[in-house]
Design brief:
- The protein is mainly β.
- 0% of the residues lie in helices and 53% in strands.
- The chain has no helices and eleven strands.
- The protein has strands at 3-7, 10-13, 18-25, 32-39, 46-51, 58-60, 68-73, 78-83, 92-100, 108-109, 113-118.
- The strands form two sheets. Strands 2, 4, 5, 6, 9, 10 and 11 form a seven-stranded mixed sheet that branches. A four-stranded antiparallel sheet has the order 1-3-8-7, with no helix packed on it.
- The chain is globular, with a radius of gyration of 13 Å.
Length: 119
Amino acid sequence: QVQLVESGGGLVQAGGSLRLSCAASGRTFSNYAMGWFRQAPGKERENVAAISMTGGYTYYSRSVKGRFTISRDNAKNTVYLQMNSLKPEDTAVYYCAADYGGAGRYDSWGQGTQVTVSS
């Protein structure tokens, strides 16, 4: 499995921006499709964004489309989530996850980073 470490979370006012990073190690990063998930207290985990192994395909949930951008740098073994126009409802723990070969199954997860958006 690939090891994943997220960073970049924090406290931001509504309307602000944050960029999350997820650094991968231990395996060939370009062999993995990557996703960002979030989970708020009392809510189910939500897949907010995903990106293919080459970066040529991206997915966004309806709740973040137009505000969040996922990208990756395979030379740096890192995937990013740029979050703009943040809303209080974006408050959650954000996790990155790796899907070997883009098979549709995320089997490596980071420890998560807290994002809190104040109103």
